[in-house]
Amino acid sequence: MEQELEQLRRENRMLIQREKDFINDRLAKAVQVAVPDCSSRNTSSTLQQQQRCRSAPAP
């Protein structure tokens, strides 16, 4: 009985960690999409757009 409980606890920890990793991965991808890429200097980009790239995204 104790071994089964310990096995279930290990499985729970693994599942929780997998879910956390999944959530963190999704958040990281969402941030990449939300923040514009400033590496390409487009001549038509305005100063305001460039400043927006450097600052935190608007709420």
Walk me through what this model shows.
The protein has about 60 residues and is an all-alpha fold. It has one domain (about 1-55). The protein is about 70% helix and about 0% strand. It contains two helices and no strands. The chain is rod-shaped, with a radius of gyration of 21 Å. The relative contact order is 0.08. The mean pLDDT is about 80.
Largest sheet at a glance?
Answer: none
Mean pLDDT: 78
Number of domains: 1
Number of DSSP helices?
2
Q: Please write the string of helix (H) and strand (E) elements.
A: HH
Number of DSSP-assigned strands = 0
Radius of gyration computed on alpha carbons: 21 Å
Q: Give the amount of beta strand, in percent.
A: under 5%
Spatial shape: rod-shaped
Distance between the termini: 51 Å
Outline the fold blueprint.
Elements: H1 2-34, H2 47-54
Summarize the structure.
Residues 36-59 are annotated as: Disordered. With 59 residues, the chain is mostly helical. It has one domain (2-54).
Can you give keywords for this protein?
59 residues
